[in-house]
Amino acid sequence: VLIGTRRYESEGPLFALGARLTATARLLSWEDNNMFVFACEISDGQRVLARGDLKAYRPEDIREFLRMTKQ
Fold this sequence. Notes:
The chain is mostly beta strands. 11% of the residues lie in helices and 52% in strands. The chain is built from one helix and four strands.
């Protein structure tokens, strides 16, 4: 489950329609409470167009987690 992003930087306000892009993610940290931080980049094969860190949560039981978030 994506929690949020931090330090997002982009070379422009949008990506060109039809552009062939590559997204990569590298695990930075993993905490005991199933929280993860990934360093991510979006590139066009020649240069990095955007970068940022994504924070994510992996619940033990995704169905129960989704049920609880709907309440």
